[in-house]
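Sequence, please.
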């Protein structure tokens, strides 16, 4: 991106299922000066775990959440004056407290204004941003650190609407500059925008899915090679040989056409292995792609491993990632599920343990209780 562009790494949704705290710590070690999450609760969790860099709340706030945002020194997106008023009132109350009683912010409240240039979701209409800025001046304690919008079609083959949004945003930026306002950061591009349009870079970008080694879209030809961060594996819990015509699982949705070796795996849709993978998914066993047979259950699923007659209870089974020369990607799983890779990694369940490796060494483990055990050196 070049030194002139600030990186705002996005670690919302538990870092897209990867674990927000260890990802935040790794990003800080890599030089990140701030990070973004979606909700107040996500920001509070990081603060209470000791993360001190600025944290931007992409989803904004409800007015009742303003005091907590101030306490935890969080930087919200705002797009309505009720939230601005609530933040200003919380700031004013804090200024009146004795210094010894204050928690959190000492100076003004940093915010980013969210502009709707065509996403139709959150944001100030792009034709009303100057009015909003003028109204905002009535609320003391608020400092605008950034101006942002989000592209609706950056991952689509046709760039026309993304260019329209970028042009709308640029006009807003120009209007603001002409009126004398000075805003440090202007940002538009998420992962797709970073790769699809140089014009979308401005002086800050918000990489999300690309941080975790997953292309934001197969429509983009400009995405460099990315290395996936997540690998999901389980092991064979039970094996049985069954005769032709044997039904497998709920609803008898699969019938064996031959004598088959069926492996039962201790993973199901509660763990994030979607029900929609029933009779569609593939897993890797001893370097072979084996089909999921029958319906995926809450805690279990079945796989036909007839092509791997030497398979044993306890054998590693890869659901996402590499094994030998074979690979199953988040894009593969998304195609079988009829969804997008974002949902694949975000859906990994709470009881799936996370083991974090750096240069082959275990640096952190997170269990079902969501407690991290660090092995810092």
């Amino acid at each position: 991106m070049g030194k002139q562009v600030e990186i705002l790494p996005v670690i919302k949704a538990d870092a897209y299922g990867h674990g927000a705290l260890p990802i935040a710590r790794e990003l800080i070690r890599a030089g990140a000066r701030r990070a973004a999450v979606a909700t107040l609760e996500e920001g509070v969790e990081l603060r209470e775990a000791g993360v001190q860099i600025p944290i931007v709340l992409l989803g904004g706030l409800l007015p009742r959440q303003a005091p907590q945002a101030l306490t935890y020194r969080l930087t919200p997106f705002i797009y309505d004056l009720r939230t601005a008023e609530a933040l200003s009132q919380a700031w004013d109350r804090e200024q009146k407290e004795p210094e010894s009683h204050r928690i959190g912010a000492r100076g003004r409240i940093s915010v980013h204004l969210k502009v709707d240039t065509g996403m139709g979701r959150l944001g100030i209409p792009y034709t009303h941003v100057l009015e909003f800025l003028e109204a905002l001046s009535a609320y003391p304690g608020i400092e605008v650190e950034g101006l942002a919008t989000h592209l609706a079609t950056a991952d689509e083959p046709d760039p026309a609407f993304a260019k329209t949004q970028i042009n709308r945003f640029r006009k807003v930026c120009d209007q603001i500059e002409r009126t004398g306002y000075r805003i440090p950061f202007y940002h538009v591009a998420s992962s797709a925008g970073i790769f699809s349009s140089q014009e979308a870079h401005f002086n800050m970008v918000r990489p999300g899915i690309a941080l975790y080694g997953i292309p934001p879209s197969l429509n983009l030809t400009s995405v460099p090679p990315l290395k996936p961060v997540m690998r999901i594996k389980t092991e064979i819990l039970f094996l049985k040989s069954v005769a032709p015509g044997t039904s497998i699982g709920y609803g008898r949705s699969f019938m064996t056409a031959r004598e088959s070796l069926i492996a039962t795996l201790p993973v199901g849709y509660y763990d994030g292995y979607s029900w929609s993978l029933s009779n569609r998914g593939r897993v890797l066993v001893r370097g072979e792609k084996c089909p999921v047979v029958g319906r995926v259950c809450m805690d279990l699923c079945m796989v036909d491993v007839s092509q791997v007659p030497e398979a044993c209870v306890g054998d590693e089974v890869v659901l996402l990632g590499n094994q030998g020369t074979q690979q199953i990607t988040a894009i593969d799983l998304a195609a079988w599920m009829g969804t997008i890779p974002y949902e694949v990694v975000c859906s990994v369940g709470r009881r799936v343990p996370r083991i974090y490796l750096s240069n082959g060494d275990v640096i952190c483990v997170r269990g079902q209780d969501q407690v991290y055990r660090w092995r810092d050196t």
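The mean pLDDT is 95.
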